[in-house]
């Protein structure tokens, strides 16, 4: 349990850091300057978000939950943790219009995810039923 | 006896794993149905209903779609 937790933290930190490295590399190529404090803040936010998704993915490994329950649990957890981080890091400005747009993107993303999974399994259902029908004749 | 042992034993007779706790005969399936919450249900010809867990969906599908003859005899 502890090992699994540490593993997930390390994966989150690694992915978050890799993305930060890519962004800093881009800034160096483009000669964009920033302060150490700024970089520290965004790096920290990336790592925390990495850890969040690393842990949250365990929700989709719970086979006994339906896809609907998994999606709802995942989105609730993400919402509760992600929004404070991106607001504090300044990625999402704290004003009504930005928050509504942010929430809209958030809900759209999850809806697309849910609908794609649903139709994927709908297709599986259809192709298996077709095979069974042709066998029964 | 463990369920995976039962599974191995009955493999030759067309039985396959559906979920953690279910092994069923692939030749006795009536139909599959996706419920609203995304669970894949399987209805057997006998009328009983079970769930297919996503872990086993892939194997089940390849067995049904590509398997052709499922060791019927």
UniProtKB/TrEMBL annotation, chain A:
The chain crosses the membrane at residues 9-30, 42-60, 72-94, 100-121. This is DUF3021 domain-containing protein. It comes from Gracilibacillus orientalis. The keyword Transmembrane helix applies. It comes from the Bacteria. The keyword Membrane applies. Keywords: Membrane, Transmembrane, Transmembrane helix. Signal peptide: none annotated. Pfam families: DUF3021 (PF11457).
From TrEMBL, chain B:
Residues 1-66 form the HTH LytTR-type domain. It comes from the Bacteria. Keywords: DNA-binding. InterPro entries: LytTR_DNA-bd_dom (IPR007492). The keyword DNA-binding applies. GO terms for molecular function: DNA binding. This is LytTr DNA-binding domain-containing protein. It comes from Gracilibacillus orientalis.
């Amino acid at each position: 349990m502890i090992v699994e937790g540490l593993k997930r933290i390390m994966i989150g930190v690694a992915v978050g850091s890799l993305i930060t490295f890519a962004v800093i590399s881009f800034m160096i190529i483009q000669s964009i300057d920033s302060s150490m404090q700024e970089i520290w803040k965004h790096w920290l936010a990336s790592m925390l978000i990495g850890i969040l998704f690393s842990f949250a993915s365990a929700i989709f490994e719970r086979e006994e939950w339906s896809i609907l329950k998994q999606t709802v649990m995942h989105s609730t957890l993400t919402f509760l943790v992600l929004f404070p981080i991106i607001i504090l890091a300044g990625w999402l400005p704290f004003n009504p219009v930005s928050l509504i747009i942010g929430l809209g993107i958030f809900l759209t993303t999850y809806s697309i995810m849910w609908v794609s999974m649903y139709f994927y399994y709908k297709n599986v259902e259809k192709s298996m039923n077709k095979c069974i029908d042709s066998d029964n004749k | 006896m463990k369920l995976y042992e039962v599974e191995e034993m009955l493999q030759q007779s067309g039985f396959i794993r559906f979920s953690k706790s279910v092994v069923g005969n692939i030749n006795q399936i009536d139909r599959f149905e996706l419920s609203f919450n995304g669970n894949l249900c399987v209805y057997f010809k006998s009328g009983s209903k079970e769930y297919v867990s996503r872990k086993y969906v892939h194997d089940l599908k390849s067995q049904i779609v590509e398997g052709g003859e499922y060791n019927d005899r």
